[in-house]
């Protein structure tokens, strides 16, 4: 079992930045691919960004390309999401997810472990 705990959410003005962190604990000796998803009120949970075990391969949803960066520090069992140039439409609960394997996945049903989520609110 792996436990994921997100942090770093909050309220920010449009154009501002936030850095989300997701710390993994438990059975972290395996190789895990990680991702960030988000869910706005009344909407589906969608992929924001995903990263392979090595960190060499990443994927982003089109709406965040050029603004968000996913990265990871395997020595710290932590994955990050740097969010710049935030927009009101980025407002959502952001979830960290993990799945055993070296290559990233893009569908939420492919991920086995989830954090509790952290709220990001961007004011206009």
How would you describe this protein?
The chain is an all-beta fold. Helices cover 0% and strands 53% of the residues. It is built from no helices and 11 strands. Strand 7 and strand 8 (78-83) form a beta hairpin. It is globular.
Write a concise synopsis of the structure shown.
By secondary structure, this protein is an all-beta fold.
Major sheet: 7 strands, mixed
Kindly report how far apart the N and C termini lie.
Answer: 40 Å
Residue share in helix: under 10%
Number of helices: 0
Give the oligomer, counting copies of the same chain as homo and different chains as hetero: single chain
* Overall 3D form: globular
Q: Tell me the total number of β-strands.
A: 11
Mean pLDDT figure: 96
Q: Helix/strand-derived class?
A: mainly beta
Rg from alpha-carbon coordinates: 13 Å
Q: Could you spell the SSE succession in H and E letters?
A: EEEEEEEEEEE
Low-confidence stretches: none
Beta-strand share of residues: over 45%
């Amino acid at each position: 079992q792996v436990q994921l705990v997100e942090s770093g959410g909050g309220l920010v003005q449009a154009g501002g930045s936030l850095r989300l962190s997701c710390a993994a604990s438990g059975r972290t000796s395996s190789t895990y691919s990680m991702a960030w998803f988000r869910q706005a009120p009344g909407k589906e949970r969608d992929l924001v960004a995903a990263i392979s075990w090595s960190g060499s391969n990443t994927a982003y949803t089109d709406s965040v390309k050029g603004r968000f960066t996913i990265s990871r520090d395997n020595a710290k069992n932590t994955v990050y999401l740097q969010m710049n140039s935030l927009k009101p439409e980025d407002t959502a609960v952001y979830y960290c997810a993990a799945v055993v394997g070296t290559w990233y996945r893009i569908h939420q049903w492919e991920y086995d472990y989830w954090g509790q989520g952290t709220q990001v609110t961007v004011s206009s």
